[in-house]
């Protein structure tokens, strides 16, 4: 298969984000198709944006898998019955995954007692397990709490650890303890020192690796240390747009292939298969 004919699955993005204009979706999707990115999982973050995610998936079901969840940044700012609303939405949409949910102890997260985040996350982990839906998880400075929650629930439904930036040791520990855990890599990994990021990328087992843009965030920011660590990639890399979109997944493919010392064609096929395993049974995977 030629590089031009590869197909890619963007395992996590946010096409409903207000930074994408209402009339832009068709152009974004056609640029995505032209780049070989023919499937994507679109994640809702709060009750308010679920209807928009639903509308995008309804209009573009051949490309888009809907995911509905409560992101940690919105915890404490939702109607009391948010969990009932989430359950109803998932039951009404058998093709949907659960996400984005998770844990965030960074300063970027709005103030909220961390215990509340943990209980909201566990409720969604249990719901995904009960309904056997893939779960898309945000985890920032909270890998210990994530591992505790996974050890408690022992999910068998796929758990996609989105924009994974954790250490190689955590990859090995989570991958061996949880056969349904997947590690999804976005441009966020370029915030790490390259040596650490490359160790992490090489530690991810081949059958657990996914690629994502996290669009409109998740752009690659490659400083001089990165350019030195991966000179082959840097020479061929086009400049990174301010606002990421699914077509940018080709750059992630190039980066991860260079970091792992693998070919782009093989890595595209591998990550496509893995994403279809995560979203197995959902319409976009067929
Ligand atoms: Zn996200």
TrEMBL record:
A matching Pfam family: TatD_DNase
GO molecular function, one term: metal ion binding
Lineage top rank: taxon: Eukaryota
Species annotation: Auxenochlorella protothecoides
Record keywords: Hydrolase, Metal-binding
Binding site for a divalent metal cation 1: 12, 14, 100, 214
InterPro entries: DNase_TatD-rel_CS, Metal_Hydrolase, TatD-like
UniProt binding sites for a divalent metal cation 2: 138, 162
Protein name: Putative deoxyribonuclease TATDN1
